[in-house]
Amino acid sequence: MTDRALRLKATSMLVLSTAFWSLSFPTMKTMSLAQQALLPGVNSWFTSSLCVLYRFGVAAAVMAIWTVPRLRGLTRRECWQGVGLGLFGSAGLLFQMDGLAYTSASTSAFLTQCYCLIIPLGLAAWERRRPSAVVIVCCVLVMTGVAILSDFDWQEFQLGRGEIETLISSVLFTGQILWLQRPGYAGNDVSRFTLVMFVVMALGALPVAMGTTHASADWLRAYSTLPLVSFMAVLVGVCTFGGYLLMNRWQPHVSATQAGLVYCSEPVFVSLLVLFLPAWLARFAGVDYANERVTWQLLAGGGLITLANIVLAVVPPPHGPTELVAVVPQAGPKAAEG
User: Which end of the chain is more exposed for a tag (fewer CB within 10 A), N or C?
Assistant: First the structure.
């Protein structure tokens, strides 16, 4: 497979991963509404951390069964890669989920995507070189698209607890993207370091859940209904396995900058899903959660984000330290892809 074909395939797989992740937004919103009725007055840190703990704890258990035949080959590099990804990922998710309780969804959506600017500008400053013109243009297109898509209003913007926590999560997600991209981890077994990642993400949420527990019975009551168990199954089966396995497998084949911009496709899929999915989920869970409508923001913002990713997929990125592309060895015809 040529470099261009590999880059195109990797980009398409990463876009698919954002589609899987996007399902978590309406699912978790419905889950939150249902849990508010079951656990009125419970600390938002508790429900956020408990969700991360259960979600990645179950994923780790399933992943361990899947990777049993290859666990003996677990290396120190794979352990360190999984630990770094897990620490950045769990902390980022906790701050993002708790921040949503104190700011609007549109502001959170906009600020979370700041990593698409942090990555190229930070790497450029570190390597003392300017980002390419293509990267700069695509960054502007993506941030403009996300701002339009989320209906972000600069006049009403205030830097409060929710906004600060969301910015912190964006920085942590930046760390996760760059950690996965480290050239020293090229060739690691995807399933093995992903298992370590899931374990660390679950353990990272455990002390937060324990420290914010109001009553021990809340640990079971939070997922004591069929809809809530079903929503957790969707988060584990689709959003976690679908999203993170694709991310860990294919991101090293593109630059860190391109990966950050591709992940900004997530709000596009979220905007499409909320046109029809909330009413279905709300009917199943017995809560009030209405569908949204097609707007010019969806068409314009989604179009700009899509255009930026098409440009980055077609135009070869400059080969230099700023782009931080991990060189992943190509498997032979009989080798597994991990």
Answer: N
